[in-house]
Amino acid sequence: MNAQLPDDSLTQLLDKYDALKLSNAEVLAQYPKGAQVLRRAVKDGVVNKDSVKTDRKAYRDQLQNYMQQNGLKPEQELLRQFINQKILRAAYSNNQLQEVMTSFWFNHFNVSVVKNDCSQFIPTYERDVIRPNALGKFSDLLLATAKSPAMLYYLDNFSSSGNNDSMKQGNGLVRDRLIQQMHNTDTGRFANMPKLKKGKQPQGLNENYAREVMELHTLGVDGGYTQQDVTQAAKVLTGWSVYPMGAYGNAGQKLIDRIGDEKLQSRGFVHDGDFLFNPNRHDNGEKTVLGHHFAAGGGYDEGVQLLTMLAHQQATAKFISKKIAVRFVSDNPPQTLIDKMARTFINKDGDIKQVLITMVDAPEFWSAAAVREKTKSPFELAIGSVRSLHADISQPYQLFNWINKMGEKMYYYQAPTGFPDKGQYWINTGALLNRMNFGLALASGRIPGVKVDLAALNNHHEPESAQAALITYSKIIMPGRKLDETIKRLSPMLNDPKLMEKVNEASAKTPAATIAPVTDNNEMMDQQAGLKGKRKNNFMAMQTAAGNNSMLAQVVGVIIGSPEYQRR
């Protein structure tokens, strides 16, 4: 529970990812966005901006040379390192609960790399905000996310000001439509929403973060707040912004240069790492949120009071407890379990570890209705598979590509809701085919940079037949489960020498993002089994790229793709 088990081997693997150790300011300096590189190159006289239109290749070459000469790297390389470390931590860390809860809280306090303003800040958001607080006090986690540049830019609170009420003009109307669409989990539609014009940010009160901190982060949609509470909370949080760094906040930098960093506190500013409270942008009037009165002139402290109050509400205790129970128990957890967890949440000051302990100590957690009820997300399927097979991972990004193909593009989910944690979101005809294809690709060594030694799992004892292999490896990969029905259902698929080709061809024709729930996973497996003919197995002598027996690779691939293995 304390996430303090030694992880020396993992640390050694992560050492080569130098970008993961950088501060936000260092990230901005070394991994600038393309537009920032262009502005710098034009300013330095290296690139003629008119060449962008006349000679694209020469323009790209000039920019690439400029970046190399100045030690600059593309932002995609930063994101690649970040994703690689995520895969490696999940696959190899001894502190699995911390990693699971880090993923849970990142999804709960979701930010997305598709929003350019916040993308460069996301690696430190997970490293410095989410992971250290994943098993701590909820109020600490809430405050840390509220003050992080990633969240401040993602939900626009960095630009919220109490100085005027013009947000209904110009870009404000677009922003209202945008935030409404962000509630819709159909991210394809969300991606087509109109984008805000570049340039000067609209001034005035911005309610995006205030609304989401109540609806998604604390109280829940039925948490008893009103639109008036949202507006008042937004006023409380005006002035919460980002300390100027890199190409961000030039106007703020000029203000700080004029005042002097050492005099900020005496002027009512609060500088904490990359966070800056600017009293000049704060609404100094009286406010009332959920019946709590905030006196005029409260400054930064009233924002802390607001978030602390939200973190300790009964509605928050129930909302967070239910969300944790949905993650670990079932899509529809018993209310009795949620109530027990919520009482602990209140009595233990939002201590996340204590809430988890209450959950696993409850009989509802171990009931027959809860066991194996949850469906693995693509990330969980991929990570669970490589851990079960003791895979050697030298190219973790290859696993990310497969996870994306199966429907979960980590860190790219656009809406602040985060990925839905419901089985029907993940399982459909295309998803099951892609999952089966993943299992076959992993077991047969067809994922570059991911090696498995299937024989070693069984102490190098070669099964006498495909049926014997199915029984033996089902027990190895899914220990402690009743497997009679699963083995019976999978057996017809063992002797099809073209199974890999058929599944690969079928999954290639089906878009991974198509969400059309299948009512019965076993029925889908029967349909897949029906593709085959009654042939003798002729794979015994063949070898795969990884040196694994092809019969064994097909057996293990079928197990990983089976409905039973899709269950946690």
Topology of helices and strands:
Elements: H1 8-14, H2 24-30, H3 34-43, H4 51-54, H5 56-69, H6 75-92, H7 96-108, H8 116-119, H9 122-133, H10 138-146, H11 149-154, H12 171-182, H13 187-191, H14 208-217, H15 227-236, E1 240-242, H16 250-259, E2 270-272, E3 275-277, E4 287-289, E5 292-294, H17 300-311, H18 314-328, H19 335-347, H20 352-361, H21 378-388, E6 392-393, H22 396-405, H23 423-426, H24 429-443, E7 450-451, H25 454-457, H26 466-477, H27 484-490, H28 499-508, H29 521-529, H30 550-561
Antiparallel strand pairs: 1-3, 2-3, 4-5, 6-7
Helix pairs in contact: 1-6, 6-21, 6-22, 7-9, 9-10, 10-17, 14-15, 18-19, 19-20, 21-22, 21-24, 24-28, 24-30, 26-30
Walk me through this protein's architecture.
The protein is mainly α and 568 residues long. Helices cover 52% and strands 3% of the residues. The chain is built from 30 helices and 7 strands. A hairpin with a 2-residue loop joins strand 2 (270-272) and strand 3 (275-277). Helix 7 (96-108) crosses helix 9 (122-133) and helix 24 (429-443) packs across helix 28. Residues 164-201 and 512-545 have low confidence and may be disordered.
